[in-house]
Amino acid sequence: MLRNRSRRRVIMGCGGLAAGLLLLLAGGLYFLQRFYDGEIKRVSGALPTAGGRPSPSGRGENWLLIGSDRRADIPSMGARADTIMLVHLSGRGDRVSLISIPRDAWVPVPGHGLTKINAAFAHGGPSLLIRTVEQLTRVRVDHYAALDFGGFVKMTDALGGVDVTVTKTTHDPMHDRTWQAGRHHLNGAEALDFVRQRWNLPAGDLDRIKRQQAFLHALAARALDTRNPIRIDRFVRAATRSVTVDDSVTSGTLRGLAHRLLKTSLVEYLTAPVAQMAERDRQSVVLLDEDGVGKLFTAVREDRVGDYVSRNGVANTVDAVR
Q1: Beta bridge partners of residue 279, listed in sequence order
Q2: What residues contact residue 176 under an 8 Å CB cut-off, 6+ apart?
Q3: Contacts with 281 (C-beta within 8 Å, 6 or more apart), sequence order
């Protein structure tokens, strides 16, 4: 028991978003897969089949994770990927690196020219989004998973709420909510407003990314500390009903992912390097730093993200956010 508690402190002390999201996808699903596996949605054709994809590096494993306010497996409904994250699990099994790509990043989308990266999902679903991310990063995506933001509400409420810390008072005019500086205990609806805010935040969507990371860090911490079996059951049911994965993901895949995460001692959170905010086609966009993006994702391909972080000091903090 002491050893397990020590492991939990190490994982949560080193970060939050990847631990939260991946523990939902792996640890929770593995724990109850015999009971809930039938509830996990799978989408066929998510992984591209056309040629021209990056070759597998054989160094670790990469998941593309998205979050959406709408059903993330039905692009015909006009859903866009509100949150886009590439998660790299190191080949040694000791490190998880979660890299958020701004949804307004102005990038080439195959067949659609330059546009916002989240439009790739609306134009062609998971397959086109994966092709776009692979073209941008030259990193092979092994698996795809999507989370319905509505599920965050149910997962949060199932655990009795989560705690986050805000460093400065800010008002969100879109949701008419003021966040006072200090610690907040969020129910599901409040958590959804918290992760959606981008107005009146100094860095706009980049600060929104950090809020998403902070929330999922808090969700993971709450889930790991929960001892009430009824709450755990409700939480995992809400998680499984909110997750969509590619059809190559099996129970064995989830079991292997869970084993990897149980060995992980370090989780780090990054944002793809940004050059500046700009305007294109009468819309606000994010221009990525091409040199920085190249260096970061070269480190991912070579399984040297730790070296990259040590040199550049770019990991995000999640204990307190704007």
Answers
A1: 284
A2: none
A3: none
pLDDT in tens, 99-138: 999 999 999 999 999 999 999 998 999 999 999 999 999 9
Q: Are 72 and 78 in contact (CB under 8 A)?
A: no
Q: Which residues contact 97 (CB under 8 A, 6 or more apart)?
A: 18, 87, 88, 90, 267, 268, 270, 300, 305
Strands 243-246 and 41-43: parallel
Query: How far is 149 from 126, CA to CA, in rounded Å?
Result: 17
Angle at 212 between CA 33 and CA 22, to 5 degrees: 25
β-bridge partners, 65: 85, 145
Which residue type sits at 267? V
Residue 43's nearest CA partner among 121, 156, 133 is 121
pLDDT given for residue 4 in this prediction: 40
Beta-bridge partner residues of 155 = none
pTM (two decimals): 0.84
The span from the CA of 239 to the CA of 281, in Å, is 38
| Tokens representing residue 320 in the block | 């307190």
User: Which residues share a beta bridge with 278?
Assistant: 285
Using the structure block, give the residue that is written with the tokens 């991912």.
Answer: 300
